[in-house]
Amino acid sequence: MYEFLTLENADGIATITMNRPEVYNAFNDGLTFELQAVLKSVKKDKSVRVVVVTGAGKAFSSGQDLKEAVSQTDRPFSDSIHKRYNPIIKAIRKMPKPVICRLNGVAAGAGCSLALACDIIVAAQEAKLIEVFINIGLVLDSGSSYFLPRIVGYHKAFEMSAMGSRVTAEEALALGMVNAVAPLQDLDDLVKQYTGYFAGAPTKAVGLIKKMLNKSYGSSLNEVLNYEAKYQDIAGSTHDHQEGVQAFMEKRPPEFKGY
């Protein structure tokens, strides 16, 4: 079904693997459009309760495939950004389910942006995050100028962006850019800790929390308080809320269904 990525769906976990290892999972047109399509697919799939995004081989993604870009000099940068990259970032942020980045290796340029757009980042010790745009005289895109300063603050974000600084996994952990770090051979076990939790979590409430946190960036306190009240009504009407209360009363672990 897909040429440049693979999709595995099991036990409520959808794993999307960018599959161009020979070019470090660089983004060509095909990969970006397939990512858009697969994200739409897992959003609609009610059996999916958590999404994992990763890369095949040594890298997560090295960003734009420059060899392809050189052959398309007649296309404005903005056209590519609006049609190829921005829909991917928006799809991740609007996904009503948690999206986990399995950061198996380097994430550079738009690859770094893709990682930062995820809700949880679990990184291999060997991984690096690089805002590499400046090295070819370009500026941040694909959401990095939104996510990066909110995570690390303006001064560190400027340094990383304007100097193309490499950030190791351990440095990223200290900066709050990633949630957890493990040696590459242990990365899958660490990812499973998160996927195992979210596959059994109250998915509707998790999705609402994600939506609330996204809105909080551009909202006043009064607006946030109103959002909280609105979404609490929605969460309170779910099966999982009823199950959680019943489980508490019966002194047993809840069995959430995700709706």
The whole-number mean of residue pLDDT values reads 96
What share of residues is helical? Answer: 40-55%
How many domains is the backbone divided into? 2
What is the succession of H and E elements?
EEHEHHEEHEEHHEHEHHHH
Judging by the overall fold, what is the CATH architecture of the largest domain?
A: Alpha-Beta Complex
Structural class: alpha/beta
Q: Note the beta-strand portion.
A: 15-25%
Low-confidence stretches: none
Could you give the order of strands across the largest sheet? 1-2-3-4-6-9
Number of helices: 11
Gyration radius from CA atoms, angstroms:
19 Å
List the helices and strands and how they pair.
Blueprint: E1 5-10, E2 13-18, H1 29-44, E3 50-55, H2 66-70, H3 77-94, E4 99-103, E5 107-108, H4 110-117, E6 120-124, E7 128-130, H5 144-152, H6 154-163, E8 166-168, H7 169-175, E9 180-182, H8 187-199, H9 203-216, H10 221-236, H11 239-249
Parallel strand pairs: 2-3, 3-4, 4-6, 5-7, 6-9
Antiparallel strand pairs: 1-2, 7-8
Helix pairs in contact: 1-3, 3-4, 5-6, 9-10
